Amino acid sequence: MRESFNMFPLVHVVCHRSDLGPDVGYEAIGIVDSSLPTVGVFAKATAKDTPKAATEKSGTGIRSESETEDTAVSPVASSTPAPAVEQHKDGYGKGVIFYLRDKVVVGIILWNVFNRMPIARKIIKDGEEHADLNEVAKLFNIHED
């Protein structure tokens, strides 16, 4: 009996997503290793570039809100109000970070860029060198308002 084999082996690329609150979230795929060279391409963020806006648009829940609704109250109250979180004045709050090995993209973090994982998966799967990662970042539509 002849043994069968698959000419197109299944390649699984690990991905991870996390919302770090209602205003910051990321999606990561591939090898995201701090020892690798990186190239980041960032753009100005708008109010729709948040996990909260992305989940409202898709109709899914946002985990960070549900986890903070029933938070415990500290028995020792502070008389000093918490400092206000200062927004970045330049507004560059969304972007794509490429992780490279031998000039080939092996990992990608999408920072406040949502629902674009198929594009990232394809870039990694293709395994090609890219002369200009700014052009590759345009595939994620980060410069659209």
Strand order of the largest sheet: 1-2-5-4-3
What's the story with the biggest beta sheet? 5 strands, antiparallel
What percent of the residues sit in helical stretches (DSSP H or I)? Answer: 10-25%
Distance from first to last alpha carbon: 60 Å
Sequence stretches where pLDDT stays below 50 over 5 or more residues? 1-12, 63-88
Beta-strand content bin? 15-25%
Number of helices: 4
Tell me the structural class.
Answer: alpha+beta
Shape label: globular
The SSE string, one letter per element, is EEEHHEEHH
- Taking Cα atoms only, what radius of gyration do you get, to the nearest Å? 19 Å
How many extended strands? Answer: 5
Average the pLDDT over all residues and give the rounded result: 74
Summary tags:
145 residues; alpha+beta; 4 helices; 5 strands; 23% strand
Question: What are the SSEs and their pairings?
Answer:
Layout lengths: L14 E5 L5 E6 L7 E6 L7 H8 L4 H7 L24 E8 L2 E8 L5 H10 L6 H5 L8
Antiparallel strand pairs: 1-2, 2-5, 3-4, 4-5
